[in-house]
Design a protein that fits this description.
- Helix 2 packs across helix 4 and helix 13 packs antiparallel against helix 14.
- The protein starts with 13 loop residues before the first strand and ends in a 9-residue tail after the last strand.
- Helix content is about 40%, strand content about 10%.
- It is extended.
- The C terminus is likely disordered.
- Strand 1 and strand 2 form a beta hairpin.
- By secondary structure, the chain is α+β, with helices and mostly antiparallel strands.
- It is built from 16 helices and 14 strands.
Length: about 475
């Protein structure tokens, strides 16, 4: 039997004659990627966050947009209960705490919110049925360097948390926070950039800082900007050729003092009179530096950072697009991306609603309770009026055709008031009263709902007030 021969193969494009490809002897073949593990260097990323406004914007922008518009309760609940819940969200600074936790998760790679329930030990599982009146005291943000997961205890129940740490230990007790051992059910956890299993193990099962992926682009951008700033000092260089300069400097003494006096005179006269006094044998020259191409280079690196952070230029730099573009499409796409990020808040916020309900109202959250995040995109007045008109026509037509009841129409009007700008004054009492009101009267020019035939005129009257005669149309359905 013939012995098989081992053949060496190579992937990717390759050109031996031109020395093109990763397998050839060229400069590109030496390229590779290496992990810089910036997320582990806490002091470095904190210095970056404090000193670079771009890094600050890259970390803060998405959490700020995820939480700045709040939400609206879309289910039908008592108006007083609604006010109580909304006031507690403000009083306990729920949005501010969630905002901080999301920021530190992006900065450090992970952070948690501790749900503070008075009278319950933090190491036991959270029992919603044992939440007493007024026992919910808000949220406490803890970043990954303040709390460590206990990797020896794992969640064994089937579900989305299977295999995750069951307990977390507070390590920053010097801040006044007790050295609690906290059950995972009392924490709302956010990771920065999620990592695959093996890499997550290297980060103590946390995620990765958003700074790590853009670190090289940021340093390159800052180098270009700083280099451009240094060129400003050399934008206007003046040189003077002095006859016998070496001899004057070598001689020193009176000759050198005379030269210095002459140069002082030149600077003074240029500043005050714009004149340059030199000897006939000397030569004066001024050179200017051209900054052509630098703005384009800086713009290219801006776009790289914008792409790396997934934040458009108009949001990250506050920079309006050039040309005829308005940036609205970029912002609209960005807000859609933020809306998808808000999905991470859906389940935690519903849990918080349940806790607040039990703490403030002594009753569990209704099964049909629903809420939606308020839209980030703000329409212009013209667009809003157009949407309001189209929405009003659509709902009115649906109600008149019998597809929608008056109560449903009024409910939809109120729910869409944040978009259309109309209908916010409709109260629950108005909606409830709509059930007992008769169906809307058909307009005079409407067709017979049974036969579909047009009405015919059958009476003419005189207008005594106007002094003339005209026809006043009344309806008699022709059947």
């Amino acid at each position: 039997m013939a012995k098989s021969k081992r053949i060496v193969t190579a992937d990717s494009y390759d050109n031996f004659m031109a020395r093109v490809g990763l397998q050839q002897n060229n400069q590109h073949a030496a390229s590779t990627y290496r992990a810089n593990y910036t997320s582990r260097n806490r002091l470095l990323i904190e210095w970056c966050y404090r000193s670079s406004w771009i890094i600050g914007a890259a970390v803060d922008a998405i959490p700020d947009d995820m939480t700045r518009k709040g939400l609206r309760i879309t289910s039908e609940i008592d108006a007083k209960q609604r006010g109580t819940i909304e006031s507690l969200f403000e009083e306990l600074a729920i949005w501010e705490t969630l905002n901080s936790t999301l920021k530190w998760s992006r900065l450090y790679g992970g952070a948690v919110c501790l749900i503070m329930i008075e009278g319950q030990a933090p190491f036991i599982p959270l029992d919603l049925n044992k939440i007493g009146h007024g026992s919910f005291k808000g949220l406490l943000p803890l970043d990954r360097w303040m709390i460590n997961p206990d990797l020896t205890r794992r969640i064994k129940e089937l579900g989305p948390n299977l295999g995750k740490p069951e307990f977390y230990n507070v390590v920053t007790t010097a801040t006044g926070i007790p050295a609690w051992r906290i059950h995972h059910s009392r924490l709302i956890r956010f990771d920065g950039v999620k990592l695959p299993y093996q890499q997550a193990m290297t980060e103590n099962e946390w995620g990765m800082s958003v700074i790590e992926r853009i670190f090289d682009r940021l340093t390159a951008y800052d180098s270009i900007v700083e280099g451009s700033a240094q060129l400003a000092y050399k934008a206007h260089l003046r040189t003077m050729a002095i006859n016998g300069l070496r001899a004057i400097l070598g001689q020193g003494g009176v000759a050198e003092k005379g030269l210095i006096k002459q140069m002082d005179m030149v600077r003074m006269m240029q500043s005050n009179e714009g004149m340059t006094l030199i000897d006939a044998a000397d030569k004066f020259d001024a050179q200017t530096y051209s900054f052509a191409g630098l703005p384009d280079l800086i713009s290219e690196f801006k776009e790289e950072i914008s792409g790396a952070t997934d934040i458009p230029l108009v949001r990250l730099y506050g920079q309006s697009p050039k040309g005829f573009a308005t940036g609205d499409s970029d912002l609209a796409n960005y807000y859609d991306a933020v809306g998808s990020q808000q999905k991470k808040l859906k389940l935690p916020i519903r849990t918080l609603f349940d806790i607040i309900y039990r703490s403030a109202l002594n009753e569990p959250l209704p099964d049909d309770f629903t809420f939606e995040f308020n839209p980030l995109w703000q329409m212009s007045d013209l667009d809003r009026s157009t949407v309001a008109l189209n929405t009003t026509n659509a709902i009115t037509t649906a109600m008149q055709s019998g597809i929608m009841t008056q109560k449903a129409a009024m409910t939809d009007f109120r729910e869409l008031s944040d978009v259309t700008g109309i209908g916010a004054s409709i109260t629950d009492e108005d909606i409830n009263n709509a059930e007992t009101e008769p169906p809307p009267r058909l307009p005079d020019n409407a067709a017979d709902p049974e036969t579909g035939r047009d009405p015919i005129p059958n009476q003419s009257t005189a207008d005594s007030a106007g002094g003339g005669r005209h026809r006043k149309w009344s309806l008699r359905w022709f059947k």
